[in-house]
Amino acid sequence: MKYIIVGGGNSVYYLSRSLTSKGHHITIINRNHNECTHLARKLKAVIINSDASNKKILEQAGASSADAIFVITLNDHDNLVICQLSQTIFNIPKIFTLVDDPDNEFIFNQLGVEKVLSINRILTSLIEEKTGYDDVTNLLSLAEGKVNFTKVKLTPASPILNKNLSDISMPENTLIAVIIRNVNPIIPRGSTTLQADDQLIVLNRPTEHSKVIRLLTGEK
């Protein structure tokens, strides 16, 4: 496979080393001359010391025949420009990029860049998971991170105990998919009453996650 990697630093080095070890052809585009010299000494890859936001440089790197491009500079604006060129001009099948500001994920997605990763959002989620509620477990993320799949155990302090689901005002785009009660799964209905020690399997958008957890647990 033929991959283009745009950016610098250790992340580019380790990603390139991993891909070349698997027999893939790698071209790296990096603005920093010293980093390019270092990468050229360490890797079996084509190194281009230039600006990937220039269409001619992407063409020189073989973008028209690339199987994928990894755009991992530290500048969201640069990443967006390079992604758009890769998509609209060269029609690269797979485009992966990083965003520094988690709020920019939506902008990238709206402009057609689907493989977007926010390191800051991931770190925030990990920290919240490790320091947050003992009765909340983040199971996995679905649909490119657009849906959370979470298990919440209801404690005696939960404000929704002994209420029917139909009487609870859940945030938009939130679904209690399954209730596990005494190891038995229950498919919830509007008339289902929630009890202490129930484990709820909840689907929701990341933007609503904190609000949902507060509603179910009563934690501030």
Attribute tags:
Alpha-Beta Plaits; Rossmann fold; 5-stranded antiparallel β-sheet; 220 residues; single chain; 32% helix; 7 helices
* Through-space gap between termini: 49 Å
Helix count from the secondary structure assignment: 7
Biggest sheet, in brief?
A: 6 strands, parallel
What is Rg?
23 Å
Shape: elongated
What is the H level of CATH, i.e. the homologous superfamily of the largest domain?
Answer: NAD(P)-binding Rossmann-like Domain
Helix/strand-derived category reads: alpha/beta
Mean pLDDT: 85
Number of domains as seen in the coordinates: 2
Q: Can you tell me the CATH architecture of the largest domain? A: 3-Layer(aba) Sandwich
Low-confidence stretches: none
Given this structure, which CATH class of the largest domain is correct?
Alpha Beta
Q: Helical residue percent?
A: 25-40%
Order of helices and strands: EHEHEHEHEHEHEEEEEH
CATH topology of the largest domain: Rossmann fold
Our estimate of the beta-strand percent is 25-35%
The overall strand count is 11
Lateral arrangement of strands in the main beta sheet: 3-2-1-4-5-6
Q: SSE layout and pairings?
A:
Layout: E1 2-6, H1 10-21, E2 25-30, H2 33-42, E3 46-49, H3 55-60, E4 68-71, H4 76-88, E5 94-99, H5 104-110, E6 115-118, H6 119-131, E7 136-142, E8 147-153, E9 174-181, E10 184-186, E11 199-204, H7 209-217
Parallel strand pairs: 1-2, 1-4, 2-3, 4-5, 5-6
Antiparallel strand pairs: 7-8, 8-11, 9-10, 9-11
